[in-house]
Amino acid sequence: MSKAALTQWRHKAGAWVQRGLDQRLRLAVTGLSRSGKTAFITSLVNQLEHAGLDARLPHWPPAAEGRLLGIKRVPSRHHHVPAFGYEAALGQLAGTPPAWPEPTRGISEITLAIKYRPKNRLKRRLNDNATLYLEIVDYPGEWLLDLPLLAMSYAQWSGQQRELLREPALRELAGPWLQMGEGLAPDGPAEDARIAPLAAAYTRWLHDCKRELGRYLVQPGRFVLPGEYQGAPMLQFVPWVWGEVGTGLGEQHHHGMMEARFEHYKKHLVAGFYREFFAGFDRQIVLVDCLTPLNRGPGSFTDLGRALDAILQSFEYGKSGWWRRLFAPRIDKLLFAATKADHLTPDQHGRLTRLLGTLVRGGHRQARLSGIDIHTLALASIKATHSGRVRHQGEEIPALQGRRLEDLAPVTLYPGEVPEALPGDDFWQRRGFDFTEFAPPEWRPEAPLPHLRLDQALAFLLGDKLS
What is the pTM of this model? Predict the structure, then answer.
């Protein structure tokens, strides 16, 4: 074994031992676009850095019990993964006026060393002080939507997309790329000059589906968030929706070239992401914005449910005992968090949690969970409103105060009631809910960011590791 290989092996072995002894935890944070991943990680790190000082974390035992001895950021051991832009995000939140942090477009990571006094007698006997290395990994939820493609052929995926196009709104938006592809003979000689513009038109359609129709289940996910693969040939294919095609067309033909690129995409991007990152996560939080699709309408909300089902299918479930954690890491705690709870009055938080629970319940059954610990929670990573009561037509009603995001104007409002279960026709006809987006609060960098229930998220995700 070469010296470089030996060094790499020792590095991996050390990480495995730390993982096996509960000294290292890899926490993955994901969510579909605009679910608030960057805000969540920024606030989480900020709360941890203030823990034991002036952070308000009463539901996180290590902080409440005074057992935290120190927390600091340390270099990541994955030198090929970009660093999470924590300082830049804080700078945007502390700006004049404050602004929400720019969303990340790919994978990133930040590592914290959490030094604490163990409560567990055995741990305390071994060492009065212990350190947990927490690796927080941020990645787009759209990449998870691609994992089901691994079990599909190009023909099966094309058939699935063909069925989607039966919906009039989706087919109308797809007009440009559908028309462009009609003149493409499946057995014609493959030409990049024709396939590349077609793929670009298809990608614009995916973006339009997200922006104009509020759709979430867009495939392939890397088309809308390509990262460093922007312009790569393996991101230049489309589903063949212009009738059935026989087998045997090689890469020299249009259909065969796109089929080959689809398979290359699965092998190098989808399976590659699984091998390098996804299979190594210990804990996972999935952030879900339930409020925007409630504003958008039934099509958007139904598609959110389908996307969450697809995400649930992607997880490897099972208990992570020390042996499995050492040699085959698996996610053993999964938290679904409904974000932007501060955009609702407090009386609606429980309803929001139950609505999210209803959305993911079917996925629980479908995934046949075996021993995994799953929890749902409504939170606000960065609290942007104040709640209170106002008089309206002689009655006191709950209300929110904050600054509207679009024009920074101060507003006082009651957004309405969130359904506790999947909304039916009466909800959509009544339209008794109007979600308003708020700007971030005025904030001093020396203070912890205001939040709702981040300490409860910490207690679920890290509680057993700091016992």
Answer: 0.88
